[in-house]
Amino acid sequence: MMPDVKEVLIPSSEVQAKVRELGARITEDYEGERPLLVGVLRGAVVVMSDLMRNIDLPCELDFMDISSYGSGTSSSGVVRILKDLEEDVTGRHVLVVEDIIDTGLTLSYLMRSLKARKPASLEICALLTKPSRRKVDLDVKYLGFEVPDEFVVGYGLDFAGAYRNLPDICILKEEVFAS
Ligand code: PRP
Ligand code: MN
Ligand code: MG
Known about the structure:
binds magnesium ion; alpha/beta; globular; binds 1-O-pyrophosphono-5-O-phosphono-alpha-D-ribofuranose; 3-stranded antiparallel β-sheet; 6-stranded mixed β-sheet; binds manganese (II) ion; 179 residues; single chain
């Protein structure tokens, strides 16, 4: 275990089991379709990579980069599109994939932007949610786990850009993000 990690919150085995379960539900719900999975850079890349391999359909893949955080630990509420989609989503079944929903500001902005492009359907798959931090309501159809208001890293989630490569979802030692 990396020295900056206080504890493992969700071990890799549980994450993998959940991702398989979400993939199976998505496979069933989108039967006969060719869904477009939209990942939000950069945190979603790990869950996206595992999730798509658990969907037994001809999926397509695209990414958006949206900024809200900078390098701090709390949302500034400032949302900006840094990189837009390559694909036209009009008439497509779009599934947005996220690692975590915190305040919900990132996704509520993104969902508004995507909805305006008239997809055939638009849903959210988020591995984690922090309900205690939510500022805006979001309808999350595919959800992995609820997590407490702790600073979690790993499986795509970073602190100041690092720790995304941890296979488990971990809680950092306070001294790491307090310094
Ligand atoms: C994190 C996380 C979500 C967003 C959630 O991304 O991956 O995308 O914040 O926060 P919110 O619900 O309060 O908007 P971040 O902006 O840190 O970028 P990253 O994915 O590159 O780490
Ligand atoms: Mn993100
Ligand atoms: Mg981040």
